[in-house]
Amino acid sequence: MIEIGAQVDLPHPADRVWHALTDRGLLARWFTEAEVEARGRLLLHTAGLPGFDAAVDAEVTDRRPPELIALHCQEAGRRSRLTCAITPTTEGCRLSVREVLEHGTWPAEQRVHREQCYQQALDGRLRAILDWLAFQQVDLRRGEVGMTAELPVTEAFDDVPTDRRRRVLIAVLAAAALTIGVSAWTVLPDEQEHGAGPNPLPVLATAPSATSRSPEATAASRPKRTATPSDLRPSRTPTGKASRTPASIPPSAPPVTARYETVSTRVFGYTGEVVVDNAGGAAARDWTVVVTLSEGGTIASASGADWRQDGQAVTFTGPPVPAGKAQTFRFDVRDALTRAPQGCTINDNPCAGL
């Protein structure tokens, strides 16, 4: 019997995690879209996810909110049982996902990718969705574990005695008048300095005014010109010739370049495009593009290049690009939080567009 699983500890109450598991809109944001079919069955659109060959036809066989939900799944001729268990902890709860293959087989590589897909979804997108829900569902109950906010308690103004209320109003009005007076005083012009006429231009230097100097002092303060124009003008006669690159060393061909662009976005991810360009050189050039996704992002599919994902890094390769030609590939990313990757390099050089 083949079994895979993933587990994550979450700082959220069990009922909030249960809501993210069972609400179709939220499930689509952190894992995949789901459709309700006849007789209460679900169709999970997992085709293209790492470790999945096709959509999964699922039927709920056990449901105990907010502790456990179990599904009987069929996918590409295989049958499996998927169980999601929620266990309370001192910090929140622990979510464990366990899938047991009952009929058929998973190749070793597919099993690894499937397990990684579960773990990345729990560690990345599910955490983000739960944090978002925490802001939407603020818990104001006092003294309970998981309290997210507590409003301060203040004395109502109507309950204050009349004499005290009058003193408070007088103090507030006095403070406001004092503030307005100080503000007005700071912006008034200095009459002794500027007079009654229009404001002069701002003083740009602290040196004495030129009007207080005598003409003789002004003339004496000017520097004498002792150098002739010919002395100050640089000589046009070259003193030596710059060394030239020896003709025996040919110039290096410009490296192959790449440009990234997000060509479309959607609620649960985006589509990226990379154009690999071999603008120079006389021969075809090899290339390797590495795209760094945000945490929890996964590649659903790609066209125009071979790819493999290792954590957040996705490596794309393809045939050499002929001189003066370009090659384009696209890839679909499942990520409900971002609309572009964190980075992109081609042959260890940055891509344009990011």
UniProtKB/TrEMBL annotation:
Residues 249-354 form the CBM2 domain. Residues 191-257 are annotated as: Disordered. Gene3D superfamilies: 2.60.40.290, 3.30.530.20. SUPFAM superfamilies: Bet v1-like, Carbohydrate-binding domain. GO terms for biological process: carbohydrate metabolic process. GO terms for molecular function: hydrolase activity, hydrolyzing O-glycosyl compounds; polysaccharide binding. Residues 236-246 have a biased composition (Polar residues). PROSITE patterns: CBM2. Belongs to the AHA1 family. This is Uncharacterized conserved protein YndB, AHSA1/START domain.
